[in-house]
Write a structure and sequence with these properties.
Elements lengths: L1 E7 L4 H4 L13 H16 L6 E4 L3 H13 L7 E3 L16 H8 L1 H9 L34 H23 L1 E6 L1 H12 L17 E5 L5 E6 L3 H12 L6
Length: 246
């Protein structure tokens, strides 16, 4: 049996403030640090022993991975970082409060920007210093996005999935991918064969390990979160309600 675990980073400072984050490199909140440690404890209690891990270039995912592996006594395993696992780029929405965005553009439009398959927010201009083309960590990326729909995120992740993550899973049998809500949703859509409509309502909570089990022929046999069903329901609803006024 092969196990792939997808782990969204712990709560970030901008999650806490309910701001669109995207490629903005913000840190974990204190709660996010504790969530990452708890993820490590859950994984260790379930007997999972990773031999390889992947993460993005963004510190909230990198630190989540470090804290999780530290709790598991697995800091020694190889870790591979790639910009292809970064969060979806939210364009001009980055830094905007999600409730304010809903009040400004309407809840249906914001839902499309946040969760739809092929609708992207307005892009950041290339001459804006916030554009990732000005960031030295992305020099090897070639063309960098000023905005993305989930479809665009999936298109940059899928080659990496095929060339690096899937072969490593076959070789190592238990692999961890610590990344972001939308980059992980892109992988989930592929693995579960979800439609463009189904992915809109699928939410991944912070720092709850999501386990995928595959048989000897690499066919998905089952998937599950390491969380109590009621706890999971509440956490998913919390993600879904981020754009709603209190």
């Amino acid at each position: 049996m092969y196990k792939l675990v997808l782990l969204r980073h712990g709560e970030s400072e901008w999650n806490q403030a309910n701001l669109f984050t995207g490629w903005t490199d913000v840190d974990l909140s204190e709660k996010g640090v504790q969530e990452a440690k708890e993820a490590g404890k859950r994984l260790k209690e379930n007997g999972i022993q990773f031999r390889y891990a992947f993460t993005s270039y963004l510190k909230r995912a990198v630190k989540t991975l470090f804290l999780t592996l530290n709790e598991m006594d697995r800091l020694w395993i190889p870790v591979e970082k790639s910009w292809r696992l970064n969060e979806k780029h939210y364009g001009m929405l980055q830094g905007m409060n999600k409730v304010k965005a809903t009040e400004t553009y309407g809840k249906d439009q914001v839902l499309l920007w946040r969760r739809s398959w092929d609708v992207a927010p307005e892009p950041i201009p290339t001459d804006d210093p916030r554009h990732p083309s000005h960031d030295p960590r992305y020099t090897e990326a070639g063309s960098t996005p000023g905005t993305e729909a989930l479809k665009d995120t999936a298109e940059r992740i899928m080659p990496y999935w095929e060339s690096r993550i899937l072969p490593t899973l076959k070789a190592e049998k238990e692999v961890l991918v610590a990344a972001h809500g939308n980059s992980l949703r892109a992988i989930v859509k592929l693995l579960k064969g979800m439609s463009n409509e189904e992915i809109i309502s699928f939410n991944i909570p912070t720092a709850i390990p999501y386990v995928f089990e595959f048989d000897a022929d690499m066919r998905l046999s089952k998937d599950y979160f390491l969380a109590d069903p009621e706890e999971l329901k509440q956490l998913m609803e919390k993600v879904a309600n981020q754009g709603k006024a209190k």
